[in-house]
Amino acid sequence: MKCPPHNRPYRAGMSLVELLVVMAIIGLLIALLLPAIEQTRETARRAQCLNNLRQIGIALQGYHGACGAFPVGCIERRITADKSRRQIAWGALLLPYVEQQAVYGMLDLTTPYDSAVNAAGAAAVLPVYVCPSVDRATMNSTTGRGPTDYGGIYGPRFGADHNDPPQGMMLYDVPVVLSMVTDGTSATLIVSEDSQYLPPGEWISGMSVFDVSYPINLAPRIDNDIHSQHPGGANGLFVDGSARFLSDGISTAVLTAICTRAGGEAVNGF
User: What's the domain count of the chain?
Assistant: First the structure.
């Protein structure tokens, strides 16, 4: 049987006020969610940065086992404009131990870091040397060499302490052996983040070694120092291979203590 026709129920559309209210609620929800999403992403980036340092720590232990000492921070640092000096960094020496044998094979470390023969190999961008939180667009280097966001610790230089002779783990032309680390391997920093220095650091250049002269994240951009793009502190690698987040609230006394290999300080609470 055919049903008789009937009127469809009337459905009213949303008024302009209702539409504006819905849009405001959606906007508020987005505003609340975005910081949480970004915080989650930054947590993941910071964890990846810590993992990079752990890999560097394993590489440093492997290098020490093979060579009997940790790598020097810099070979033939350029104190003047003498470009015959090599200024080769610890990052280049570690390449075979961070699974970059192919890049290492492209280099001639008997020549300066910026020699033509090293150009192709030095251009490699190696994830293990790059913190994912760093915005590379704001840290562009025109040299064509691969970046690094990590630096070797030459020692502390706060106040009257001029770090002479150097008290850290990564020195110029002088290797450090484990027996020299009398402060304890778990309390001695060897590498840390150094992500704001301009011009940007390069893993092949010996400029990626520095005195620690400022509290964490407070150095000016013209100075190498402990600095990161992570809120509240920076990641650091200790001689025993452990990597941890260092709060930017650490006192200069504690920072000095962990940057010396044989200072005799008692270090607690960092």
Answer: 1
